């Protein structure tokens, strides 16, 4: 069985590639930074140079897999990133970049593998979204927008390809141990600097830094466990439409579904603008 994993240079993508290889899959790991994936070779993983925002790069990666293997059984769309900041302050160029990676990159890769999967009347597409695709928070409007859109795109694709024996699953992590929060905090401070949102953003950034450094790190799902969830979705004969896990994911979904918008808004604004965590 052959699988292509995007965004495999670190975090969940890296772990999923290693786990799937150990389970007997022929794994191709794609990312822009080839050197970061070299350690995966010890598991039999083949690293590929892949930029999901480039038509030529995406076409080349899929063509290489097909040329060597003759088929592709699963695609894990894991490539993505979070650039946080007030909607007013995030440049449209940055917003486009966010959508290009988190949404259009998924569409690009999916469109390239579907013809091959249709011919064999089987296949699996696993899209890594986020709990941010189900619940919105301040200072993350464009990131939320990209993940909400990915949820809709995945649902539509799942229904469209069902007659061809192809299954689509969505991964919705909550808090996962990684550098995501530290990087997001830096982007948040940068994008809001000098604006009317600077103090609000600085407090939210401090919360992220606290959560993703030491205070709550041990409560978060580890990268290996997150990789196992992805692998489970790839390997299941009847995958669920959604796999939700990680710190806060359950509570966030419940609060978002049950509370009136004005109550939820007030709670989130209070948490991110006023709550101080000790560092």
Give an account of the 3D structure.
- This protein is α/β, with parallel strands linked by helices.
- Helix content is 53%, strand content 13%.
- The chain contains 10 helices and 7 strands.
- The chain has helices at residues 11-22, 34-37, 55-69, 92-120, 141-161, 180-192, 198-213, 223-235, 249-258, 261-274, and strands spanning 2-6, 26-31, 46-49, 74-77, 123-128, 166-173, 242-245.
- Strands 3-2-1-4-5-6-7 form a 7-stranded parallel sheet, with helices on both faces.
- β4, α4 and β5 form a beta-alpha-beta unit.
- α1 packs across α8 (223-235), α3 (55-69) packs parallel to α4 (92-120) and α6 (180-192) runs antiparallel to α7 (198-213).
- It is globular, with a radius of gyration of 19 Å.
- The mean pLDDT is 90.
Q: Give the helices and strands as they follow along the chain.
A: EHEHEHEHEHEHHHEHH
Structural class: alpha/beta
Would you report the number of β strands?
7
The strand order across the widest sheet is 3-2-1-4-5-6-7
How far apart the termini lie comes to 47 Å
Figure out the total of helices: 10
């Amino acid at each position: 069985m052959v699988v292509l994993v995007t965004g495999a240079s670190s975090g969940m993508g890296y772990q999923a590639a290693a786990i799937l290889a150990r389970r007997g899959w022929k794994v191709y790991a794609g990312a822009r930074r080839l050197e970061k994936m070299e350690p995966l070779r010890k598991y039999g993983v083949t690293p590929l140079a892949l930029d999901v925002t480039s038509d030529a790069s995406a076409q080349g990666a899929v063509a290489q897999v097909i040329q060597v293997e003759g088929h592709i059984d699963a695609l894990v769309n894991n490539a993505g990133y979070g650039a946080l900041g007030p909607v007013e302050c995030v440049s449209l160029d940055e917003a486009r970049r966010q959508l290009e990676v988190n949404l259009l990159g998924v569409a690009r890769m999916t469109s390239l593998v579907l013809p091959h999967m249709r011919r064999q009347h089987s296949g699996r597409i696993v899209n890594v979204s986020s709990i941010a695709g189900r619940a919105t928070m301040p200072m993350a409007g464009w990131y939320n927008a990209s993940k909400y859109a990915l949820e809709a795109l995945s649902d539509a694709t799942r229904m469209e390809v069902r007659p061809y024996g192809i299954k689509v699953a969505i991964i919705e992590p909550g808090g996962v141990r990684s550098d995501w929060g530290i990087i997001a905090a830096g982007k948040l401070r940068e994008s809001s600097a000098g604006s009317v949102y600077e103090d609000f953003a600085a407090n939210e950034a401090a919360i992220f830094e606290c959560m993703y450094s030491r205070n709550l790190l041990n409560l978060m799902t580890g990268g290996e466990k997150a990789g196992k969830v992805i692998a489970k979705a790839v390997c299941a004969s009847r995958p669920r439409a959604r796999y939700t896990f990680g710190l806060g994911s359950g509570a966030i979904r419940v609060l978002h579904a049950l509370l009136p918008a004005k109550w939820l808004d007030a709670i989130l604004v209070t948490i991110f603008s006023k709550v101080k965590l000790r560092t």
